[in-house]
Amino acid sequence: MQPDRIREDIEAALGKRPLTTLIKNVDLLNVFTGEIYPASIGLYRGKIVAVGPKAGELRSDLVIDGTGKTAIPGLIDTHLHIESTMMTPANFAAAVLPHGTTTVVADPHEIGNVLGKEGVRMMVDNSKGLPLRTFFFAPTCVPECGAVTSGAEITPADVQEMLTWDGIAGLGEVMDFPGVLSGNDKMMRILETGIRNKTVIDGHAVLLTGNELSAYAAAGPEADHENFNAESAIEKLRTGMYVKLRGPHILDIKAMVSALNKIPKPWNIILVTDDVMPDNLLNFGHLDFVCRSFIQAGMDPVEAVRAATSRPAQHMRFFELGAIAPGKIADIVLIDKLETFNIDTVIASGAVVAKHGKLLTQFNRSTFNPRAKNSVKMKCLTSEYVQLKPPIENGRLKVNVIDFTSPQKEMSDMGLAFLQLLLTKLEEDEIEVRNGKYVLGELSVALVFERHGRTGARGSGFVRGLITKGAVATTVAHDAHNLVVAGTNPQDMLAAANQVIQYGGGVAAFKDGRILASIELPLAGLMSEEDLSLVGHKMMEMRQAFKELGVPDHPYMPLISLFTLSVIPHVRLTDKGLFDVDHQKFVESLVAN
């Protein structure tokens, strides 16, 4: 900052020059002391220069009457994946600013798996000049492991390069915790890069406990968002890690808050969103929804605000953010009532950008880099590509089956329900072969096509509980994002797969030769250039199609999108075949007699 600018800030605070904006008569939530008290806030050229009762006496070019409103800092989300909203960063910004989110730190490992560091650069470039302060982590685990073929690999040298880019704020979630614990050379080099650069290292330590958790934290990751129960979260809090808690779609918030309220003064709790599907963003909101849900579940509202503002700022070393205080950037949210957390006015860098849920500011929503298109490097399929040929003409065969077991009953614990749906089993079953074709019965066929133009491989397997009618195809298949097709008959499978290929990526659901719903995602097979209203409604239609087809769904994310993620127990299907995650080996679909 230039000396003249510092002098101007001083003069504005002392009343020697007019403020840019004065926010009068608010109840200020002070994140430092935890107090809420009447105050006014003086802004000068995007910066807070005066706070307190006396600030209301200063001259200003613009005065905002905040009577009846509580002023809190702008919300900071430090763990999310913009690609999951199916929107570009520019359209994402337009969607979340009215919800009070003024700063995000996104991990672009989804597009990284498709387009490598070039894809990360595309996300950074598309976020430039936005009123939403947008940072990115450098992805650390692309691909997630050797069981998949992704479109690119991000190497330790790539990570080092990305840390020099404007807009990169740290290392993304270290998903390969088995690689960390085994001392994998690639992971050691990436972690060393983060430590040497003294940057933030985000974590991913699902189900780790005891000495394994200690070893993981000792390696450098300082935060973890994979928290499904209070016992695990508390253990991480005690290690000194930032525990990032997600919303009610993936967590029993009441149970979590009840347990955390018994701990005297935990300071390392942060609220985040992670993956937010477009329909959920449209219907519920963003980080404001997470804050609201925790407050309604019994969290002290002041602690909820701290967990979404000052603590994220400390975690990310954003010392100019996270508080309403002199010298901080003027990111301020006015809310009607702290308990209901209804957003009234959003101010970003001193400018009013949204009010009553409506975006007020106009900004350049630049088009996404066209090189992100045509990432589905496949020609339309013919029927033989979606059929499995048995080795016998007639009889019965033993097969390995991926079993998605549904919860026994409706569960209030959404996190446990999600885990039960997610954790597949590898089981043996018998299947009839009649006239050279499999008689599926209650089973279905799943196929994973390598779609990045690298190997052209196809993995295949039998599945129980993934679909009961028709077919679904998608390129939203974490993390390698190959083309997944699941169905009960080859005709619908072929139609769904070819629809997605023609789109250049997306999701399509077919039944009896008729398309039920589709989402066109031509940017890396993950994103659209449509805004939230359009893509959100398409996602709602897709969920209805899933229901009609018997595809297990979860408010957090459709299960088919995680069907190929080879770091989730216990068995997955990738383009390379049926993968036993527990034993880290591939198994054949047909059981040898």
Question: Characteristics of this structure?
Answer:
Urease, subunit C, domain 1; 16 helices; alpha/beta; 593 residues; single chain; 3 domains; nine-stranded mixed beta sheet
* Mean pLDDT across every amino acid position: 95
Shape: elongated
Instruction: Give me the secondary-structure category.
Output: alpha/beta
Q: Identify the CATH class of the largest domain.
A: Alpha Beta
Total DSSP helices = 16
Contiguous low-pLDDT stretches (5 residues minimum) are: none
CATH topology of the largest domain: TIM Barrel
How many strand segments?
29
What share of residues are in beta strands? 25-35%
CATH homologous superfamily identity of the largest domain: Metal-dependent hydrolases
Number of domains: 3
Folded structure, characterized:
- By secondary structure, the protein is of the alpha/beta class.
- The chain has three domains: 1-68 and 324-354, Urease, subunit C, domain 1, CATH 2.30.40; 74-323, TIM Barrel (Alpha-Beta Barrel), CATH 3.20.20; 371-587, no CATH class.
- Strands 1, 2, 3, 4, 5, 14, 15, 16 and 17 form a nine-stranded mixed β-sheet that branches. Strands 20-19-18-22-21-24-23-25-26 form a nine-stranded mixed β-sheet, sandwiched between helices.
- Helix 2 (89-96) links the parallel strand 6 and strand 7.
- The model has no long low-confidence stretch (mean pLDDT 95).
